[in-house]
């Protein structure tokens, strides 16, 4: 695949994570199974702590919003093994979290709880964040060329910082100028990129977004083609700049 040039006016690069900086398999085969396998243990252990209470509060607000919007929610059946109010409440939270994950939802409430669980796993060394080998050298090169580099992912900011703070390459957080998640808006909404541009302090046309999914974002988009990513249509291949490695990105008019 040939190199892709981005406009000389570009002052900031926005990077997606899943399928872009990091293999999709890392999220699908390591991070998500960790949540499913350790959810009950985590909730039972931390149920009375303020952070966990806040996570549960956000999840309950999400459930209320889903009901108002007539979205389907898990149906709670009577479980004869549950004896206390706390056990019942934990089971209801578990049901909702597992339902959201099965539906591949990106709610802020879900991402916040997941982030807190992953923090414990990363800090204990049970998980290390995977990044493709071309990512760190390319980011260092871009920064040397005067570009700012930000992360924008549906995973929470905390989860992003854990991945890069406890990565296979060590702590590389100092390579990023900032992080954005769904609290600024969904990746499918153009308004989200306007808010990011405002927060960064540059016009949208000066931002290039590297992501694995084609989208009309109001910023320059380069699609990263990695193993396991969704197949692109012929029209998408014709419309977007495509790279299989960050090293293929050429910054026009820069040294």
Automatic annotation (TrEMBL):
<dbReference type="InterPro" id="IPR036412">
    <property type="entry name" value="HAD-like_sf"/>
</dbReference>
<comment type="pathway">
    <text>Amino-acid biosynthesis; L-methionine biosynthesis via salvage pathway; L-methionine from S-methyl-5-thio-alpha-D-ribose 1-phosphate: step 4/6.</text>
</comment>
<feature type="binding site">
    <location>
        <begin position="153"/>
        <end position="154"/>
    </location>
    <ligand>
        <name>substrate</name>
    </ligand>
</feature>
<feature type="binding site">
    <location>
        <position position="18"/>
    </location>
    <ligand>
        <name>Mg(2+)</name>
    </ligand>
</feature>
<feature type="binding site">
    <location>
        <position position="16"/>
    </location>
    <ligand>
        <name>Mg(2+)</name>
    </ligand>
</feature>
<dbReference type="Pfam" id="PF00702">
    <property type="entry name" value="Hydrolase"/>
</dbReference>
<protein>
    <recommendedName>
        <fullName>Enolase-phosphatase E1</fullName>
        <ecNumber>3.1.3.77</ecNumber>
    </recommendedName>
</protein>
<keyword id="KW-0539">Nucleus</keyword>
<dbReference type="InterPro" id="IPR027511">
    <property type="entry name" value="ENOPH1_eukaryotes"/>
</dbReference>
<keyword id="KW-0486">Methionine biosynthesis</keyword>
<dbReference type="GO" id="GO:0019509">
    <property type="term" value="P:L-methionine salvage from methylthioadenosine"/>
</dbReference>
<keyword id="KW-0028">Amino-acid biosynthesis</keyword>
<comment type="subunit">
    <text>Monomer.</text>
</comment>
<dbReference type="InterPro" id="IPR023214">
    <property type="entry name" value="HAD_sf"/>
</dbReference>
<dbReference type="InterPro" id="IPR006439">
    <property type="entry name" value="HAD-SF_hydro_IA"/>
</dbReference>
<dbReference type="GO" id="GO:0000287">
    <property type="term" value="F:magnesium ion binding"/>
</dbReference>
<comment type="pathway">
    <text>Amino-acid biosynthesis; L-methionine biosynthesis via salvage pathway; L-methionine from S-methyl-5-thio-alpha-D-ribose 1-phosphate: step 3/6.</text>
</comment>
<keyword id="KW-0963">Cytoplasm</keyword>
<keyword id="KW-0479">Metal-binding</keyword>
<dbReference type="GO" id="GO:0005737">
    <property type="term" value="C:cytoplasm"/>
</dbReference>
<keyword id="KW-0378">Hydrolase</keyword>
<feature type="binding site">
    <location>
        <position position="187"/>
    </location>
    <ligand>
        <name>substrate</name>
    </ligand>
</feature>
<comment type="function">
    <text>Bifunctional enzyme that catalyzes the enolization of 2,3-diketo-5-methylthiopentyl-1-phosphate (DK-MTP-1-P) into the intermediate 2-hydroxy-3-keto-5-methylthiopentenyl-1-phosphate (HK-MTPenyl-1-P), which is then dephosphorylated to form the acireductone 1,2-dihydroxy-3-keto-5-methylthiopentene (DHK-MTPene).</text>
</comment>
<keyword id="KW-0460">Magnesium</keyword>
<dbReference type="GO" id="GO:0043874">
    <property type="term" value="F:acireductone synthase activity"/>
</dbReference>
<dbReference type="GO" id="GO:0005634">
    <property type="term" value="C:nucleus"/>
</dbReference>
<dbReference type="InterPro" id="IPR023943">
    <property type="entry name" value="Enolase-ppase_E1"/>
</dbReference>
<feature type="binding site">
    <location>
        <position position="212"/>
    </location>
    <ligand>
        <name>Mg(2+)</name>
    </ligand>
</feature>
<comment type="similarity">
    <text>Belongs to the HAD-like hydrolase superfamily. MasA/MtnC family.</text>
</comment>
